[in-house]
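Each record in this resource describes a single protein on a pair of labelled lines. An example record follows, reproduced without changes.
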Amino acid sequence: MGMKDRLHEQISNATSRLAKLQARQLLASQRQAEKDRAARRRQDRLRRERLAELVIAAGCDHLADTEIVGVLVHYRQEATESQRTEVEALGNAALGEEAISDT
C-alpha cells in the first residue's frame, strides 16, 4: 500500500502545482489585458485632447458643437480629392504658423 499511497500523493501534488500554475497564468493574462485596455483608453484620451486642440487652433472653438460636426460630416461626404489636397495645404500652413507662434 505504501507505493499506492505514494503515487496518489505525487498525483495530488502534481495536480496542485498545475492548478497553481494555471491560476498564475490566468492572473498574468488578466493583468496584461487590463494594461492593454488602459493603454487603449490613454490613446483614445490623447486623441480626443489633440482633436480639441486642433479645433481651438483653427479658431473654431466658439462654434456650436453641431456646426463643427456638420461641417466635418459635409466635408467628409462631399470633398473631392483636389479639395482635400487644398485643405491639407491650408491646414499645414495654419499648423506651421501655430508652431512658430508657440515658440
Q: What stands out?
A: Helices lie at 2-57, 65-78, 81-102. The chain has a mean pLDDT of 92.
